[in-house]
């Protein structure tokens, strides 16, 4: 596959689809001068799926639900759109569950829920019961979303903590995944004098910046 340099950062996002024959359904048409229909099986519990479309450029598509209704564009992200080489890769997300909000960014999709008046441990456990985790602020894009939501005037917990060992920070990843090591060289947003590496205050909140 030939890609333009501007598309190279997006190629890593294709690995889950291309790795170890991850294609669950494939259909080939010799003639695409008229519209073609492809039915693809999707498990009812699936959170997302990727669709890879290969053609001769000018790729157009419509994603329909099983009931025939057109799927909302707000839930369809574009990983790759290389019309020159005829590749389009879509990331189709399941809608957020009831009482959860969609952040509105199809290429950085999040479902989020806001709660009040909890300490860090209680807030984490509430997230766990929903199969979720505290806010992940590990990238600039995620931080920009948090800033737009709270206008940098609200203090709230994020998943960063050094609960297990003082001075060694990890991002909480919910009840089913191990914590992710904090890598400050990729992105950090510590406030002045932070982190304090306190043996008592071991959880991080965000108020424009991160504070332990």
Question: Could you describe the 3D structure shown?
Answer:
This is C-type lectin domain-containing protein. With about 210 residues, this protein is of the alpha+beta class. It is about 15% helix and about 20% strand. The chain is built from four helices and ten strands. It has helices at about 10, 15-20, 120-130, 140-150; strands spanning about 50-55, 75-80, 85-95, 100, 110, 155-160, 170, 180, 205, 210. The chain starts with 7 loop residues before the first helix and ends with a strand. Residues about 15-20 have low confidence and may be disordered.
Label this structure with key terms.
212 residues; alpha+beta; Mannose-Binding Protein A, Chain A; 2 domains; 3-stranded antiparallel β-sheet; 14% helix; CTDL_fold; C-type lectin domain-containing protein; Innate_immunity_reg
Strand order of the largest sheet: 8-7-6-9-10
Mean pLDDT: 85
Secondary-structure arrangement, i.e. CATH architecture of the largest domain: Roll
User: What Rg do the Cα atoms give?
Assistant: 21 Å
Shape category: elongated
Return the CATH topology of the largest domain. Answer: Mannose-Binding Protein A, Chain A
CATH class of the largest domain: Alpha Beta
First-residue to last-residue Cα separation? 46 Å
Q: Count of helices?
A: 4
Structural class estimated from helices and strands: alpha+beta
Q: Provide the low-confidence segments as ranges.
A: 15-21
- Oligomeric form of this entry? single chain
CATH homologous superfamily heading of the largest domain: Mannose-Binding Protein A, subunit A
Beta strands, count: 10
Q: How many domains, as an integer?
A: 2
Main sheet? 5 strands, antiparallel
Order of helices and strands: HHEEEEEHHEEEEE
């Amino acid at each position: 596959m030939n890609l333009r340099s501007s598309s190279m950062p997006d190629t890593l996002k294709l690995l889950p689809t291309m790795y170890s024959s991850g294609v669950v359904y494939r259909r080939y048409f010799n003639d695409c001068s008229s519209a073609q229909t492809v039915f693809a099986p999707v498990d009812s519990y699936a959170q997302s799926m990727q669709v890879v479309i290969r053609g001769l450029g000018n790729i157009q598509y419509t994603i329909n639900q099983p009931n025939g209704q057109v799927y909302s564009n707000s839930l369809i992200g574009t990983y790759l759109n290389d019309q020159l080489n005829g590749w389009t890769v879509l990331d189709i997300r399941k809608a957020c569950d009831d009482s959860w909000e969609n952040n509105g960014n199809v290429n950085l999709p999040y479902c989020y829920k806001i709660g009040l008046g909890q300490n860090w441990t209680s807030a984490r456990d509430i997230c766990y019961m929903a199969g979720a985790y505290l806010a992940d602020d590990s990238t600039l894009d995620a931080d920009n979303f948090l800033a737009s939501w709270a206008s940098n005037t609200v203090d709230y917990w994020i998943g960063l903590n050094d609960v297990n060992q003082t001075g060694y920070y990890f991002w909480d990843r919910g009840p089913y995944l191990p914590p992710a090591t904090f890598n400050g060289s990729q992105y950090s947003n510590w406030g002045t004098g932070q982190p304090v590496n306190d043996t008592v205050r071991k959880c991080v909140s965000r108020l424009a910046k991160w504070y332990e």
